[in-house]
Each structure stands twice: as structure tokens, then as C-alpha cells.
Design goal:
Strands 2-3-1-4-5 form a 5-stranded parallel β-sheet. With 209 residues, the protein is α/β, with parallel strands linked by helices. It starts with 7 loop residues before the first strand and ends in a 6-residue tail after the last helix. The model has no long low-confidence stretch (mean pLDDT 90). α1 crosses α8. It has a single domain, classed as Rossmann fold, CATH 3.40.50.
Length: 209
């Protein structure tokens, strides 16, 4: 990132597996003034013939985790591409990041690129509810291995050890908004918007005038 490039204005969506981040991200992406960017979008959009794409394939083809620095590099290349093709207007849109950053290290590395205006933490009081959700979703989608309880519990453990500590990095200036994720998608969306729209309006005062 060069010294004359403006940081990206962002909202972060975080929460344990099955809490509904993808659903809320997609709904927010349909609201004028927001752009939803999920980690999966970045990997799918990658040109496999580019140098970045070839490096990514070296890891993914071996089943290895992509290093943090490469992940951030791919994300930033993706965002610059969105600016170039006009699908992201930094002067009009707040970016909603879903699945990235995913760890404390990534959040620290992304500070040079991001101005985070709100962290939306989707919460569910009882883990059993998430377990039921994820089993049901996996069975409905025919992913029977993903419906196994030990697989789901392992994903919860990864979130607890890798992603949850990231909250401490943003634990200042009332940046974190905890939203109850139990209920209809519309009700949860209403609560999320209540938390983030003031931040959006403060940054883009004249965006929709």
C-alpha cells in the first residue's frame, strides 16, 4: 500500500461457525452503501495463472493453510480489482468483511490497509443451538461428514483458539457490537443495521444525497 492510498473503511463480521455470518453478510451486501466481501470470494476470484494464483495453488493443492501474508496480499489484490472494475466505490461504500481477518495476526497485519469502524460480533448463548444448526445445514446440503459432531466441535475449537482472541485487538472506543444471532434473518439484520448505520453515515455523510 502506497502512502497516498486511502485506507479501506470497513465493518467486520465475526462469530463462531453456524452463527449466520454468511447470511447477514449477503443481506448487508444488498443494502446501498455496503459491499460484502467474504473470504471465499477472494479465493474463487483468484487468477490461477497469475504469480499470486500459482503460489496459492502450491499450498492449497497440498492441503496446507495459506500463510497470513499471502492471504492478506490476495485480499488486497482482490479489493484493488474491485476498485478497477467499478464494483467497489471507496467514496460511497463501506466494506463488510466476513471471514477475514480470521486471526489476531491477520488483524494486526491488516491495520495498514483498514480503518475498522465497527466489529459486529454475532453471538449465541448456547452452543447446542449452533450444533443443531450446523448438523441440519450439513445434512440438507448433503455434506454428511460435516454433520458429524466431532467435526463441528473441532471447528468451534479452532474459532475459540484462532479467531476469538482477535476481539481484544478491537476492544476499544465501543468498536464491538454484540448482536444476538438467534431469530429470523430479518430481525438479526435490523439489529446489525442499528449498530453499523451510524458509523456508515459518519464516514459517508453525503454518499446518498
Amino acid at each position: 500500500m502506497t502512502s497516498n492510498e486511502k485506507k479501506i473503511d470497513a465493518i467486520l463480521l465475526i462469530g463462531p461457525p453456524g452463527v449466520g455470518k454468511g447470511t447477514q453478510g449477503k443481506l448487508l451486501g444488498a443494502v446501498p452503501g455496503f459491499l460484502h466481501v467474504a473470504s471465499g470470494d477472494i479465493f474463487r476470484a483468484l487468477d490461477r495463472e497469475s504469480e499470486l494464483g500459482k503460489t496459492f495453488l502450491e499450498y492449497s493443492s497440498k492441503g496446507l493453510l495459506v500463510p497470513d501474508d499471502l492471504t492478506i496480499e490476495m485480499w488486497y489484490a482482490f479489493m484493488k480489482g474491485k476498485i478497477a472494475d467499478g464494483s467497489y466505490r471507496p467514496d460511497l461504500q463501506m466494506v463488510v468483511l466476513d471471514g477475514i481477518p480470521r486471526s489476531l495476526n491477520q488483524s494486526e497485519m491488516m491495520d495498514q490497509y483498514l480503518t475498522v469502524h465497527k466489529v459486529v460480533r454475532l453471538v449465541v448463548e448456547h452452543q447446542d443451538e449452533l450444533l443443531r444448526r450446523m448438523k441440519r445445514r450439513a445434512e440438507q446440503e448433503g455434506r454428511h461428514d460435516d454433520a458429524k459432531e466431532e467435526v463441528i466441535l473441532n471447528r468451534f475449537e479452532i474459532y475459540k483458539n484462532e479467531t476469538f482472541p482477535m476481539l481484544e485487538h478491537y476492544n476499544h472506543s465501543n468498536l464491538i457490537a454484540e448482536i444476538n444471532a438467534i431469530g429470523s434473518p430479518g430481525r438479526v439484520l435490523r439489529d446489525v443495521l442499528t449498530a453499523i448505520v451510524p458509523a456508515q453515515e459518519a464516514v459517508f455523510k453525503n454518499a446518498l444525497e
